[in-house]
Amino acid sequence: MTQDPPRPRTPHPVALSVLAAVLALSSVTAQAQAPRLPAPIEKALSRAKVPRDAVSMLVVEAATGKPVPRLSWRIDTPMNPASVMKLVTTYSALDALGRDFTWKTKVVLDGSTSGGVLNGNLVVQGGGDPKLVVERLQALLAQVQAGGAKVIRGDIVLDRSAFSVPATDPGEFDGEPLRPYNARPDALLINFKSIVMTFTPDAANSRALVRYEPPLAGVQVGASVPIVRVGRCGDWRSELRASVENPVNIEFLGTYSSACGEKTWPSAYADPASFAARAIEGSWRQLGGLLTGVTRDATPQELAMLRSTGTLSGEKAAIRFEYPSPMLLEVVRDVNKYSNNVMAQHVFLTLGLHANLGQPKAGTLDSAHAALAAWWKKNLPGTAQPLMDNGSGLSRNERVTAAGLGALLLHAAKSPLAADLADSLPVAGVDGTLRERGKGVAGQAFLKTGSLRDVTAIAGYANGNSGTRYIVVGLINHPNAGVARPALDALLEWTVKEGKP
Fold first, then answer.
1. Is the pTM of this model over 0.70?
2. Listed residue (294, 135, 291, 326) closest to 213, CA to CA
3. Quick one: 262 and 125 in the same domain?
4. Cα–Cα nearest to 257, from 273, 241, 234
5. Residues ≥6 apart with Cβ < 8 Å to 242
6. What average pLDDT values come out for the chain (501 residues) when binned by 10 residues?
7. In terms of residue numbers, what domain contains 204?
């Protein structure tokens, strides 16, 4: 029996209007471009010694999608956008998954319980929650203890199979493995794989007390550091002479200035592969729980058994606890306001995990790439697709055009998610990564920023003095990109002041 061929799907009206605008923008670039950029931008680029062929810029009305842009400069040239790529990841996720989407962390008591004792294993199944910080992890474990398991006569077994990402060196990108921004994705991501150390002066005893979050099982930590009485705080981290490279022994060989008051220091953990196990066991014991066995990753055989018996899916009658993450909308705000790399990568992998593309067993980079490509083709037809790597912009390989970013921002501006995306962006001169930038247009621009070696970028929305809202994209790829940031600030001010095209 033969089947009728599938009927072609009619593109969404928003996609059609965006397509028309994109085609119009492309026709503009096909024409002879203006010989110069606006004078303030030219001046800033000249000072930074950045040639115009290292720059891509676009300014176009957001409300109408007016086909003739106020500024169009090399908008079809693929550029490295750095963290501006998070716009692609977060908006496509909001549209594909829904603003109310949540990740679930599950705990299963795989055994019999009696009198607060679990005779068996406690299984913790990660669902990719990108914001399972210490307080939320301990709230989940406290719920488990209150629900009938205070003593585990067995192991704590971790299921991290929701994501499948190749193991890499956390220092591979820039040689800084202990920087929290280099944390890698993990289906059971605890506290961004980082330990936060808080130093509180105890003047009466001439020392500063050190508090660690989360508590890490099997790790010896220095409880205090001597205080020195000086008039200024200075480079307090260097003066501590911290030894954080040893995963089982954190100590401080220096001193802490009395002038510093209370300070916090987040640091990536030296052995990220063991972090989840140490943090979960440490928190379990801190809450008064007992464990006779060890905390470890589930073996493939155990995972297959748990799935075949329905223990993880809930088909088998077992005691289960479930802890949802914050809504995707809140996660997107964290990603865009503060440019959180590992959270962005979790959002990207989740696109692959939940896309209807053969239902992959795990979120992988391949499935995420395929899901993003399918979303882009459906919603932004006729626009060159971005070259994605990990979805966070922390990459030397990712590329996107200013026209592509403009089309995405136009699609968002015309969608029911317009306010959600705009509200997630840093506000010039007010908050996030723009707190100290754009003082001259404070409160009038909402932009994602990006910065890498040889890259500086902005993209988002700006309100002109007339009340017109504009889409603004500025991308600079050049060894002097770092000192060319004033050119992007000039672009922003020119847009708000609605200078001559």
1. yes
2. 135
3. no
4. 234
5. 250, 251, 252, 253, 254, 265
6. 39 52 48 68 98 97 77 97 98 97 95 94 96 96 94 97 84 71 91 96 95 97 93 92 93 95 94 96 98 96 81 65 96 97 97 70 91 97 96 96 98 97 97 92 96 97 96 98 97 92 73
7. 180-271
